[in-house]
Design a protein that fits this description.
The protein has seven helices and 14 strands. By secondary structure, the chain is of the alpha+beta class. The protein has one domain: Jelly Rolls, CATH 2.60.120. The strands form five sheets. A six-stranded antiparallel beta sheet has the order 1-9-7-11-5-4. The protein is globular and about 60 Å long. The chain binds 2-oxoglutaric acid. The site of 2-oxoglutaric acid has 11 residues, from strand 5, strand 10 and strand 11.
Length: 302
């Protein structure tokens, strides 16, 4: 165990492991990314827009929107296999073990970015975390030397302030919560740390650590990265608000979860119907009806 790295992670909410991922593994991912994914005409589920869409390229040939759950693409098995050789690697597991006293870590999400999507400042725990909160780790993996002009990924150290933007206002809306975080970042520009990451460097950050993306200065630069989210195996998965039971699949010796299946017309319709129900007022009466039917039949809802 390297106590220096653990101390940094505990004190500031993030730590960098330089040159952790071998260049040959990254090269294989990039080769299959260009051959299989950029060239594809199928829609992909996008982390950045939370919807299925086809690739749209910038004028310099980079895919504009980011990809979700790239470790589990059945239509592109070779690409995903190479992604798993990074996100399920002994290198990542051993870096995580250096900062936690845990034996193994489950992968609960992966993403890939080509161009900078201008990620707004946020904390991961609103969306994904352990139960109890605060033990999820994001690995931000540089697939190339990230030029400052591409718009770098940044973090805000957690050491000084409390950085809790929700507990004092139960029921705060997502928009209001994001506004509070943005105000904090805007009023503390001196705290922004946008490190110069080189190919193979990995920045590990905690679910409480504010992170986001600086604006792109020159769009001729891409910002190729993979991010992978892990929880120690003995924790339950959820977010700030609830526990979410999930079904893992063992892949390359790591328990992995994917939230969104690959595109098919049926999967897209299913996603849209669920989204509509979740965001509409219809959901409450449907839940109540379901609960009373379950009660009448003598069963209880999970
Ligand atoms: O790289 C980015 O712009 C955002 C990554 C991110 O927000 C995440 O991995 O949670």
């Amino acid at each position: 165990m390297n106590s220096n790295e653990r101390e940094q992670y505990e004190q500031q909410g993030y730590v960098i492991f330089k040159n952790l991922i071998p260049g040959s593994l990254i090269q294989s991912v990039l080769t299959h990314y260009h051959q299989d994914i950029v060239e594809s005409s199928r829609p992909f589920f996008r982390q950045s827009t939370y919807s299925y869409s086809k690739n749209e390229l910038t004028e310099f040939g980079y895919v504009k929107e980011s990809f979700l759950d790239i470790h589990d693409y059945h239509n592109y098995p070779e690409f995903s296999q190479h992604v798993r050789s990074i996100v399920c690697s002994a290198e990542i597991q051993s870096a995580l073990k250096q900062i936690f006293d845990n034996e193994s870590f489950n992968l609960v999400q992966s993403m890939m970015f080509d161009a900078n999507t201008g990620t707004f400042p946020h904390q991961e725990w609103w969306y994904l975390d352990t139960i109890p909160n605060g033990h999820l780790t994001i690995a931000w993996i540089a697939l190339e030397d990230i030029d400052e002009r591409a718009g770098r990924f940044y973090v805000i150290p957690t050491d000084a302030d409390n950085l809790d933007f929700h507990s004092d206002r139960p029921g705060i809306s997502h928009e209001e919560w994001l506004k509070r975080i943005k105000n904090y970042v805007d009023s503390h520009p001196e705290k922004i740390d946008a490190p110069a990451l080189k190919q193979g460097d990995v920045l590990l950050l905690n679910s409480r650590t504010i992170h986001g993306s600086l604006p792109t200065i020159d769009p001729t630069f891409s910002r190729k990265s993979i991010t992978a989210h892990y929880i120690p195996a003995h924790y339950q998965f959820g977010n700030l608000f609830k526990q979410k039971p999930i079904a893992y699949k063992k892949m390359d010796d790591v328990l992995c979860y994917s939230a969104h299946p690959e595109y098919s017309l049926l999967n897209q319709l299913n996603f849209k119907a669920n989204w509509f129900l979740r965001s509409s007022k219809l959901l409450k009466p449907i839940r109540e009806l379901k609960a009373s039917l379950l009660q009448a039949s003598g069963r209880s809802e999970k």
